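seq as requested:
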Amino acid sequence: VKVSADRGNWTVQLSKARFTCEPNQVVKLNVVVVHNKLIDWSEIYGKVKSLVNSHNATYRLPDTPYKVVKTENDQDRHWGAVEQNFGNSKNLPANIFVIDMTKPRAATDPSYSVVKK
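struct tokens:
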């Protein structure tokens, strides 16, 4: 589903999405970790993965993320790193799940309009 880059209510468009997964089959998510260059993301990711995978849901976080993006908290470098890694959505696998470990600027981060394409 193509989602508009404007800041409108993109959740309404999810009703048109076709989620192609088999019932009763585990879906392995392709996790992208975005983190500040000063923190050790691996320990935090391990805790999140253990917590999520312990709930017997039909999705799982893998032992190692699909991609790890190192960035900084300032807006320009954060946006640049996100856009560089998500700008060409044709090269991304299905079931992307982003864990952003940088300090948010607001309740919703405007840089993720790139991810919603």
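DSSP finds two helices and five strands in the chain.
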